[in-house]
Specification:
Layout (H helix, E strand, L loop, with lengths): L14 E4 L5 H11 L3 E6 L13 E2 L2 E2 H6 L3 E5 L5 H13 L2 E4 L5 H4 L4 H7 L4 E6 L14 H7 L20 H24 L3 E6 H7 L3 H9 L16 E5 L5 E5 L3 H10 L14 H6 L1 H12 L4 H11 L3 E3 L3 H5 L2 H5 L3 E5 L5 E5 L13 E3 L8 H9 L2
Parallel strand pairs: 1-2, 1-6, 2-5, 6-7, 7-8, 12-14
Antiparallel strand pairs: 3-4, 9-10, 10-11, 12-13
Helix pairs in contact: 1-7, 3-16, 7-8
């Protein structure tokens, strides 16, 4: 029996051409790099990825860029110049995957549309992330995260007041597109193992926002009513909310079924609520949430969030604080799971950033990562790759 060669990571040996910039595409390719792919970032000469120029900066180097481009290589190519087009074509012939997040049709105008890429490399997997996808009436429109957050409905569900809309606090439009794109290209990779054929994966940021509307979509069709912002409560599970404790500090309580509600009431000393018909079922509690939440907050006002967290956790009631970013970054569970990692740049600057949430039993999850590349720093190694027979 032939022994399988030892592998360093799940995607060891996979070669990815990364034509992405800013966030949605780079986040996708960073995840591929985290899982062991050789990601070759092709950038515009002189300027590189726009994100290289976004703050915050550490000694003049973008921490933003560093946090989403770790573990990659860089080569600067002008895809309108004959010599660089030749290099790029040879690179495509060696690659397993190409990912880009240009506006739809941009790569085709450069002479590298999907039919042309297929001719160069029939086994190539092509991941295209754009604002609206490569079909439909909006396909030529430009888009950024904020645009699709608005168009995709997520802003209309966020905050406490529909008259004062609030953006989600992270770039959810970009990040969801990157994650759905990651799922798509890995599925295409598996398909290629079975069929021998490459394929195109077309990801629209707006599509991804619609896909994560979750219960808002089903509530709209089921109830024929337009959902709005709900602040810190769930629309159909009660109690499932942020409630005020001593001093007005909020605690998250998620007692999503009758037994958990009963336990909650026992812990806060309000077992009498269990005899109230208005709170006898989840449906009844949701219908009467205002009365219930008022009663719960009156009881919660007796202790601090820290005290309630201890009591609820002892009793098995799902709960948590509302942490700020500093608290998240120093949380013992976050640190135990290696979710804050370090990367050192070529200039010796140290960046700390979020780690990889995907943990593999058979592979290491290093606490120190390879830094994001300087523009064009890996040209020699990449040219050596394409010169291989």
């Amino acid at each position: 029996m032939t022994e399988m060669p030892e592998r360093a990571s799940p995607l060891d040996g996979l070669i990815v051409i990364d034509l992405t910039r800013v966030l949605a595409g780079p986040y996708l390719t960073m995840m591929l790099a985290d899982m062991g792919a050789r990601v070759i970032k092709v950038e515009a000469p002189g300027v590189g990825d726009d994100a290289r120029h976004f703050g915050p900066f550490v000694d003049g180097e973008s921490a933003y860029f560093a946090s989403i481009n770790r573990g990659k290589e860089s080569i600067a190519l002008n895809l309108k110049a004959t010599d660089d087009r030749e290099i790029f074509t040879r690179l495509v012939s060696k690659a397993d995957m190409l990912v880009e997040n240009f506006r739809a049709g941009t790569l085709r105008k450069l002479g590298f549309g999907w039919p042309g890429l297929q001719k160069i490399n029939p086994r190539l997997i092509y991941g295209a992330v754009s604002g609206f996808g490569h079909t439909g009436p909006y396909k030529d429109w430009p888009a950024y995260d904020m645009v699709v957050q608005g168009m995709g409905g997520i802003i209309s569900l966020t905050g406490t007041d529909a008259a004062r809309p609030v953006r989600v606090g992270t770039s959810l439009g970009d990040l969801t597109a990157g994650l759905f794109g990651l799922s798509g290209v890995l599925a295409a990779l598996y398909d290629r193992e079975k069929t021998g054929r490459g394929g195109k994966v077309d990801i629209g940021m707006l599509d991804c926002q619609v896909a994560i509307l979750e219960n808002a979509i089903c509530r709209y069709f089921a109830e024929n009513a337009v959902p709005g912002p709900l602040g810190l409560r769930h629309p159909s599970i009660t109690p499932f909310a942020g409630l005020r404790a001593l001093g007005g500090e909020y605690i998250i309580i998620a007692a999503g079924n009758n037994p958990l509600f009963a336990t909650l009431c026992q812990v806060i000393g309000r077992a009498d609520l269990l005899k109230d018909r208005r709170f006898s079922s989840n449906e009844a509690r949701t219908e009467n949430f205002q009365i219930l939440y008022q009663a719960l907050e009156q009881a919660l006002a007796a202790r601090s969030v820290t005290e309630w967290l201890r009591l609820f956790r002892q009793a098995g009631v799902p709960c948590g604080p509302i942490n700020n970013v500093a608290q998240v970054a120093t949380d013992s569970q976050v640190l135990a799971r290696n979710m804050i990692v370090t990367a050192k740049s070529g200039a010796g600057r140290e960046f700390r950033m979020a780690g990889n949430p995907i943990k593999f039993s058979q592979y290491e999850d290093p606490a120190v990562r390879t830094a994001a590349p300087e523009l064009d720093q890996d040209r020699a190694a990449i040219l050596a790759l394409i010169d291989q027979p």
